[in-house]
Design a protein that fits this description.
alpha/beta, Spore Coat Polysaccharide Biosynthesis Protein SpsA, Chain A, 8-stranded mixed sheet
Length: about 290
Amino acid sequence: MVGICAYNEEKNIDYCLDSVLSDAKKILVVASGCTDKTVEKVKSRIANGKIALIEEKVRKGKASALNLILEYFEKSDFEWLALVNADSVAQQGAISKLVRFAKSNNLHVACGCPIPKKESGFLTYYITKFMWSLHNEFLKNSSKFNTHCTDELVCIKRGIIKKIPQDTVNDGALFSVLVTLKGGRVGFCEDARVFVSVPKNLLELIRQRSRILSGHLLIKRRIGVFPKTLETTFISQPMLSLTTFKRAVSKENPLVILLALLIEAISLCVATISILTKREVWIWRKIITS
């Protein structure tokens, strides 16, 4: 089964659905507070019974939509649930690869490998590409069964997670932390690729990164544990972080590296202020992409 959370994704929802259609026996789309043609586009495709739609009239945050998908999944006969962001496009066969990888390695949660789309945002594309290369290199090298997942493409086994807190921002990171604390296994499948949108400009990139970092801070506040990311392991496993960083920067333009580090520092400051001022970061403004 595949679950997709969508908010005003009329431009990409058909591409997203087409990318998972051959891999899925059932696709559930939860459209939350959409004011564009997302709902109409999904409704036009539900006649064959493979695609189902739940419409939330009021947007309450991604966690609310995910909980509807998790509830539907737990009542179904499916063993695995794959989650794909509505603004992403899975490579053909990626979901099958991801689920096979999870089953063969006795995992409870597994995530795929995000690849930024080469769109018109020239500078933000190269910065985003570097950030994702760091992210993917870290997941590949941190351990065979690491404790962090991306939510661009993730699969979870039935019964392991039935509901998540309303203030969740990064569902993949939360899944991995919860499963690890339960003694479960989390993995990264490099061959299961998903293509993700790129913020249109540097301001949009800062908004995106600050929201992600806010989500990590919320997990720490709620559970007492940071997700295992490149940044958080600089203290606990410095050699791992330094080795990963060294491999990634050896292939990159120094200006791109400098800008990426500056953006990450600014984003962390914004995220910290957001958490301290108790902003509802789990209901975020849609990022403008290229």
